[in-house]
Every structure is written in C-alpha cells, then in structure tokens.
C-alpha cells in the first residue's frame, strides 16, 4: 500500500477533527469565482466540465436568480463583505496596483463582525479592496491571508498563461522593462503573492497557484479545528479571470480545461467542510466578453437588445449577463438537497445572513442592501428581494450610480450601454426616459422591452418609479462612505526594488513547497 502525500494526511486530519461549532454556531466557507458565466455551471446550462459543482447542486440548493452586487471586481467584493452597495460603501470602481486607498476604513467587513464574535477568519485568493497600509486583509478582520492583492492579470509573471491579447513574461535581469504598446499587459512590476503581510513570491508561479490555495485552505481549517473555534473562510478564486494557466494540447479548449481545474479545486475545498459548515459558492460578475474564447458562457443571458446595438452585455454592464451569477448553498441536514430556488437573491445577502446564523449583530448607524435570507436557504420560503438595484459598473453612466433596477419579474433601465466585445465594438451609452422595461419571466434574453403604450407597461411603470425614488432617497439619507482612489507608485507591492520587475532576491518556490508556516519571513519585505 502506498504512502499518503503530506496534503492527503492534512486533509484526513481536518476531516477527522472537523471544528466543532462553538455554542452551536456553524462555520462558513464562501467561495467566490472570478468572471464566471451563469452558463458555465453544468447544473444551469448542461455543460460537462463542473461535476463537483453539479454534485453540490444535487446535494444542496441552487439559486437560478442570484446576482452580484456589481458587475466588476472591486465593487462586487466590497458589497459582499459589507452588505452595502458601492453607492453606500464608497467602492464604485476598481482599485489599481498604485492605489493608496481601498474599502473605506469606517466600513465594517463581515470578517470583522465574525472575528469579534469569536470566529477564526481567513481569506485566500484575490483581495482587490486595497493593499496599502491598513487596507490589507489582515487589517480588515482576517486573522490570516494568503493570495494575490488584486486581479491575476495586474502584473507580469514567468508563466503568463493564456490571454487575449497574449502578454509577455516578466523581463529578466538586463532586459528592457519598457512596457509594450498593449496597455492591458503589465510589464514593469511582477505579480506578488502574499502570506499575511509578507510577499512570498514575486512573480507568482501561476501554474502552482491552485495547489497552493488548496494547501493554504487546509492549513487554515486545521488551525481552526485545533483552536476549537468556528471559522469563516473566504476563498476568492483566480479562476476564471485571465490569464488562464493550464496545460493543454495545442488546439484544445483552454477555457474548458481551466473550468475543470476550478471545479476540482472547489471539490477539494468542499471536502474541508465539516458537518457544521455552510458552504456558499457564487461569482463576482459575469464573463469578460472581450477575452473571446477565454470568456465564460452566458447561457440564455444574451442581452439581445444591447447586442443589436454593439458591445457586450456581460461583465461591466447592468444586463443580466453582467450580474446574474451561479450560486449554490450546501449544508447537509440544514439546506435542502436537490432544490432549485427562483428567489431573487444577491451577494449582498451573504453578510446579513451569516451574521444572523452566527448569532452576531449587524453594525449600527448604517443601512444595508442585503437581507437575512436564511429562511430561503433552509427551504422555509422562496421570497427574496422585491426590489434589487443594479449599479453602473463601467460600461455606461457614472460608476456606482443606480440606473437599473429589478422589481419582481420586471427589469428597468434608465441608462444602457455595452462593454467592449470580442469584436472590439462598444455599445453606445443611451439614456431612457421613460425607462426601458423588460419582463424577465417571458424574456430572459432581454430581447424586446415592453411597448410603452401597452397596458402592461403603463401598469408597472408607477410601481417602478416609486421603488426607484424610494431607493435613491434611502441612499441619499444614509451614512455613506467615500473611498480614496488616489494613486502613488510607492504603493506598488515590491519584493525587491533593486531587481527587475521587483523580483524576489532568491526564488521562493522551494520554500513554498516545504510549507508556508516554516518559512522565514525575510524573503520579501
């Protein structure tokens, strides 16, 4: 009989010693995929690359009308961790590698609430809510952090993977560091990998990142088990954001191979969850269509009205393909198995729901856009949001402004526009007064808005107008934060400014292979 690998031994130990729920409180694992399409999930759209996620759907509850709080990276993540839209928490567009600020410090994160309630808190993967000073994850309620501080394309690597257009590897000593003409490729600074406050790899080896994330998650859960405390683990995956780093034969389906790799990782993470752990899987926004064959699948969310006018109806837009995302909740014995819910839910709901299940209290002196949807999770109700707001996320209108909303089955647009598509087209920004209104029950493809002269339009318009006015008034009278979007090159994470592209002085890969917890922190400061 062969010997078990060190990781297998660790996984076995975690399973045998799953952390008990302190005073009956559950542990939580939130897995957030990046740029995943609603149609990428096999349970949603008959694909074959996601057997582990499909098994989660079969053994848990699948939410088919679930939405990210914004359709781009930083605002979506800020809203998940605060339960508040960017119009309230101040995060309305993405932070840069030179950003001095981040999620405003007066905003309270889910991790801070659970940490104060006695939870072990960990974040693994993409952060993108500020990395300079007190904006780092370990200053925002997380006991432990392991990951990349922003998107995995915001720095060069030696393993650049697949991208559209392709990006070159990091320069070596003596090579020029002049950035190429394509502004989408970073050339001057390598992508960093952090453990807590220490850069442990720069550039990141993307080909081994998935394995390191799985190992870091196992270590965190083991430490939580040893402490006897419940845990909150937030895993923000690099998948399916470009660059996709997978080994495939020439001519193979790169996106499908990367999707299978992500699915395998989710399966490994699921096996870390004990019987007292609620697992919530979802995505930060829809596919990045301008990446062509490396972009996810929209399924039926094709935004046909916008497509006829040019541009993409996916990431960065307020079309369904931009913000309707896959969502699964798994908790054997508590969350019903093989159930599909049509309740209108959002990543905004994760904050208040987990706070309630932990027996904690929401932060005072602010309003929340999310709801405690635990009755929906437990199959006691199928009622979610009657009104759900969709902020502008880059394709049209002022970033963060609310110019689209959902009321029951109706979707109203006061502004439309398409993001950059694979063919390079960008849909023009158009203002609508009165608004475009779609009935999503009949027209999930958002193909034809209701005729303004129709009885249905005239019947629903007053309710939409009232809901819109109430929402704007509620935000205007709330305790609203303002994010600092100022930039300074000194804020760029740099392992060694004396080395080209900030490379670490010594390759840390061997140290990674021998276990993070035993490595000296001198490597990259």
Automatic annotation (TrEMBL):
It is found in: Lysosome. One of its GO terms (cellular component) is lysosome. Residues 28-360 form the Sulfatase N-terminal domain. It comes from the Eukaryota. Coiled coil: none annotated. Residues 1-24 form the signal peptide. Its EC number is 3.1.6.1, 3.1.6.15. InterPro entries: Alkaline_phosphatase_core_sf (IPR017850), Sulfatase (IPR050738), Sulfatase_CS (IPR024607), Sulfatase_N (IPR000917). Keywords: Calcium, Disulfide bond, Glycoprotein, Hydrolase, Lysosome, Metal-binding, Signal. This is Arylsulfatase G. It comes from Asarcornis scutulata. The lineage of its organism: Eukaryota, Metazoa, Chordata, Craniata, Vertebrata.
């Amino acid at each position: 009989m062969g010997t078990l690998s060190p990781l297998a031994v660790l996984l076995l130990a975690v399973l045998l010693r799953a952390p008990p729920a302190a005073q009956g409180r559950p542990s939580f694992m939130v897995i957030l995929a990046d740029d995943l399409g609603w149609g990428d999930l096999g349970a949603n759209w008959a694909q074959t690359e996601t057997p582990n996620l499909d098994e989660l759907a079969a053994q848990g509850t699948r939410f088919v009308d679930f939405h990210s709080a914004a359709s781009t990276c930083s605002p979506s993540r800020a809203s998940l961790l605060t339960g508040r839209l960017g119009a309230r928490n101040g995060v309305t567009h993405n932070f840069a590698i030179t950003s001095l600020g981040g999620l405003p410090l007066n905003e309270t994160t889910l991790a801070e609430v659970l940490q104060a309630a006695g939870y072990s808190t960990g974040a693994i993967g993409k952060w993108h809510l500020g990395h300079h000073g007190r904006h780092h994850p370990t200053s925002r309620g997380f006991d432990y952090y392991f990951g990349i501080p922003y998107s995995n394309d915001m720095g060069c690597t030696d393993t650049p993977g697949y991208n559209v257009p392709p990006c070159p590897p990091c320069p070596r000593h003596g090579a020029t560091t002049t950035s190429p003409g394509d502004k989408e490729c970073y050339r001057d600074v390598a992508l960093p990998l952090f453990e807590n406050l220490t850069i442990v790899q720069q550039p990141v080896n993307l080909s081994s990142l998935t394995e390191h994330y799985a190992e870091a998650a196992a270590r965190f859960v083991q430490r939580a088990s040893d402490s006897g405390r419940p845990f909150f683990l937030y895993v923000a995956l690099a998948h399916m954001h470009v660059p996709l780093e997978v080994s495939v034969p020439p001519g193979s389906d790169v996106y499908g191979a990367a999707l299978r790799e992500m699915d395998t990782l989710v399966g490994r993470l699921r096996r870390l969850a004990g019987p007292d752990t609620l697992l919530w899987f979802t995505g930060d926004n829809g596919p990045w269509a301008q990446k062509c064959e490396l972009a996810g699948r929209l399924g039926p969310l094709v935004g046909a009205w916008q497509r006829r006018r040019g541009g993409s109806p996916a990431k960065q837009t307020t079309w369904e393909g931009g913000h309707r995302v896959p969502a699964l909740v798994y908790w054997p014995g508590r969350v019903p198995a093989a159930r599909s819910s049509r309740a209108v839910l959002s990543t905004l709901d994760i904050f208040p729901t987990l706070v309630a299940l932990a027996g904690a209290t929401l932060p005072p002196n602010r309003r929340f856009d999310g709801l405690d949807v635990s009755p929906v999770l437990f199959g006691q109700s199928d009622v979610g949001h009657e009104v759900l707001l969709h902020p502008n996320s880059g394709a049209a209108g002022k970033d963060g402004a609310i110019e689209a909303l959902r009321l029951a089955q109706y979707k109203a647009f006061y502004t439309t526009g398409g993001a950059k598509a694979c063919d390079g087209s960008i849909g023009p920004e158009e203002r609508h007064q009165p608004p475009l209104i779609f009935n999503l029950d009949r027209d999930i493809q958002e193909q034809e808005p209701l005729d303004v002269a129709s009885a249905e339009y005239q019947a629903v318009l007053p309710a939409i107008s009232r809901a819109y006015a109430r929402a704007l008034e509620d935000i205007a009278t709330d305790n609203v934060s303002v994010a600092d979007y100022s930039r300074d090159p000194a804020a760029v994470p740099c392992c060694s400014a004396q080395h080209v592209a900030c490379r670490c002085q010594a390759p840390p890969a061997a140290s990674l292979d021998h276990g993070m917890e035993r490595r000296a922190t001198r490597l990259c400061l």
